[in-house]
């Protein structure tokens, strides 16, 4: 474990807490894409298939449980909670996320470290997470008013992957023959997809104005 | 065959 990875995991945890706070306290999921939340639930399910077979550490297991539990809770809130679901904008959240899943699955079957079920699922989860934010970014373009919590949620979600890249650089430098191209490339694509959001988020912070993405 | 080391990152 290194400081980059610990900070990254805490940032990821913070993003989930911010979203759950928004949904649980003000009972609203306005501006949040259910498609992205469903993709994240799939990402964690496919990535943590080893939760019962490979014990790494208490930290690792506890964090896996937290990410699985919170991602499914958020999907449940947005789909079935009688108040929260009313603020879900299904007419705007129309990204066909199945078109993201199929190419990622095919790619995982073709490019992986080991052709076993768990490993292909693990690889699929990285390719899918790289593009999982797309429905959310499309929804942001469409909904004009982005509230602070939504902006903070997306910022933290993007920042965690950027911090993981620092972790991967650190591990590559300090650990002999630590090479994992699949997470590295996926993580790089994922972070780059947040590029313009980070730019406009920084501008809104610097000019102290509301976050607005260009149409 | 040697068991590959598990993925240790989240």
TrEMBL record, chain A:
One of its GO terms (biological process) is protein transport. One of its GO terms (cellular component) is endoplasmic reticulum membrane. It is a multi-pass membrane protein. InterPro entries: ER_ret_rcpt. The chain crosses the membrane at residues 55-77, 98-115, 121-140, 152-170, 182-202. It is found in: Endoplasmic reticulum membrane. Pfam families: ER_lumen_recept (PF00810). GO terms for molecular function: ER retention sequence binding. Keywords: Endoplasmic reticulum, ER-Golgi transport, Membrane, Protein transport, Receptor, Transmembrane, Transmembrane helix, Transport. Belongs to the ERD2 family. This is ER lumen protein-retaining receptor. It comes from Vanilla planifolia (Vanilla).
């Amino acid at each position: 474990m290194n400081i980059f990875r610990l900070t990254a995991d805490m940032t990821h945890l913070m993003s989930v807490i911010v979203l759950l706070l928004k949904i649980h306290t003000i009972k609203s999921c306005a501006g949040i894409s259910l498609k992205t939340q469903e993709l994240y639930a799939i990402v964690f399910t496919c990535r943590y298939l080893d939760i019962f077979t490979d014990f790494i550490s208490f930290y690792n297991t506890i964090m896996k449980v937290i990410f699985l539990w919170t991602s499914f809770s958020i999907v449940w809130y947005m789909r079935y909670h009688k108040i929260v679901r009313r603020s879900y904008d299904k007419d705007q959240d129309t990204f066909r996320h199945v078109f993201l899943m199929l190419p990622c699955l095919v790619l995982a079957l073709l490019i992986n470290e080991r052709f076993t079920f768990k490993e292909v699922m693990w690889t699929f989860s990285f390719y899918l997470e790289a593009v999982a934010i797309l429905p959310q970014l499309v929804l942001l373009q469409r909904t004009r008013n982005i509230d602070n919590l939504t902006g903070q949620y997306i910022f933290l979600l993007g920042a965690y992957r950027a911090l993981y890249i620092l972790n991967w650089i650190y591990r590559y430098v300090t650990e002999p023959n630590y090479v994992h191209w699949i997470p590295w490339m996926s993580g790089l694509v994922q972070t780059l997809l947040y590029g313009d959001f980070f730019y406009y988020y920084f501008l809104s912070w610097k000019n102290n104005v509301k976050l607005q993405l260009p149409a | 065959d040697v068991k590959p080391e598990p993925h240790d990152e989240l």
